[in-house]
Amino acid sequence: KISNELHGYFKASSDTALYEYFSFDGNGTVDITGMGNGYYFQKDDSLIVYPDKSIFKFIIKGDKLYGASDWVDGYVWEKVQDTTVESLRTDPGESDRIAGLLYQYYNIKKGGNELSLLFEGPDSTYENILKNLCDSGLSKACLDYAGLKTLEDMGGVAALFDSKKQVKKRAPNQEIVDIIYRAIDLGDTNGYEVLGGYYAAIGDIQAARESFELGGELGCGKCGMALFSLELGEEARKLEAKNKTAPAKKSAAKRK
User: Fold this and answer.
1) For residue 49, which of 74, 21, 90 has the smallest C-alpha distance?
2) Global pTM value
3) pLDDT tier at 65 (50, 70, 90 boundaries)?
4) Confidence band of 74 (pLDDT split at 50, 70, 90)
5) Residues 6+ away with beta carbon under 8 Å from 55
6) How far apart are CA 223 and CA 216, in angstroms?
7) What sections of the chain are H helices per DSSP?
């Protein structure tokens, strides 16, 4: 059976675990140590969690989760019975339908590494599968699909390795914005982080800042760190620009 009915607060049994707790809402969303929401599904006694780009695998035994992949291997999380976690499982049939879509997503991802899938290019099988999953209601697929479209819009995979390329502000691609908002409309606040990241990528820092701030207000746990990184990057850019103009001013002063 494929489902996302797991519900409750699971606390690490060891202080050395990187992730203190996982809180499952019974509807496919998991709070990961307060650092942001991820996605999950369970198949029989296996639990798959997507915190972001990586993946966590667990084995479910009673009220315990046994880590079985990178970042969680060797650690155990036990359900805390006296901790109240709101269940958002209002429509079990629909919830499990989304779990089934995430299982399909898992199967296409495990077939190849992320970079090799990116190299497939526009209108690839991978891209079309993501689009179909997005259209079917899987918000995580929408965000990945938007990422692919953004990569195409920025010049393809080669743009990932061009560290010297200057980011010049330009108008947003409405198709990409609409795909991201599809995820947001599905209730996925992680969409605000992706939206802000997209605006930053096209040089619209103010729109990026506003997206992160709004997302933070609406419960996007990842938006706070994204906003912090954005502000840090802006400060570094201003300092770099200041340092570039300083020698020019000194040279002009010497000529006088």
Assistant:
1) 21
2) 0.87
3) very high
4) very high
5) 48, 49, 69, 106, 109
6) 5
7) 92-109, 114-118, 125-135, 139-153, 174-185, 190-201, 205-217, 223-255
